[in-house]
Amino acid sequence: MGILHLSVELALDLIALISGIILIIRAKDNYPQLYWGVIAVGIGFMFSWENIGWLTIVTDTPEYDFTELLNIDKMLKWYALANIVALFPIASLSPGYFNHFRIFTFLLPPIITITVGICYLYFNGNITAIHSLNEIMPNIGNMDVKLRISIFLLSVITPLFILIYVTSRVKTHRKMNRNMYLFMGFLFLFLGIYILFTLSINEFIFNLFGITAIVFTVLFSMLYLRYENPFSDHISMVYNTEEENPEEMRNSFQPLTLFTTIESYLKKEHPYTDQKYNIKDLAEALNDKERNISDAIKSQGFTGFREYINYIRLEHFKQLIAQNPKKNVKELMFACGFSSRATFYRNFSERYGISPSKFIEYQQSK
Predict the structure, then answer these.
(1) Where is each HTH araC/xylS-type domain found (predicted)?
(2) pTM for the whole thing?
(3) What is the biggest distance separating any 2 CA atoms in the chain, rounded to whole angstroms?
């Protein structure tokens, strides 16, 4: 483990840490972005601390037992993080899906397993040394070996189940994009490395595990800094009363009614043309709580207020083009409430698959 490798990894650790802090500050009601920021800060800080320690040692072979299999500490750390990260595809496709109860339900198996593992370590602590796969079966009767095998199997199966659950959900009002497939591909790659890391530890796999984790964190932190929801694209809301069960219809009625009120107000008053317009202003105008406003917006498949208000501004831009054919893009952009040219062009191109200038040319040629 050379100085150059450690220095590169430490630099990535610091990038993850800083980007995570920025995400936390700017997240607002975009909870996936907020949680990803917390994860990035945690991973960046933890890896920075470890790599600074390795840099002070500066040896080719760290003082680390690279031959110990089924290390319970590392499996518990992985299990906690892997299940949380595996929730992001669901949160991306269905922004209003998660509540405290559903999050707790998904995380209950790892919570129980991690609690059992920690209790065993602190109240028993007897760990059988296993240095190769051939040593597992002769020691299978030992309690700690059974526990470690169980934790290992659960730490592989549970994240996989959560990911598969994403594809089995029928009702979603967003569609996966290439970043989602990249994200899921990274998770499967990371899962494979984790299995090797747990069953066949050596220095190369140890380094591969660390660098993959930090590259994964930095890459998607950058995407979250650029996009409100980097893993899926919003599509029109579609209600199918034949597929809706009565309980779900009752739960969705109040947010839907409020969203209708929100949309009517915005289309009538156009307050979003103010570049500083925020969810607090909207809540005060409608005499409602910010949380209720946010939930209503998410019930329509939007990640949060910021994504929704940019969508409204884009729709307003299209109207202004028809009404003011001689005005340029910059004038119309500011008239809609956008304050950043880069944000406007990125949102417009992603939403309609064409640049604003090309769109105007197309409209004028009709």
Answers:
(1) 256-362
(2) 0.86
(3) 82
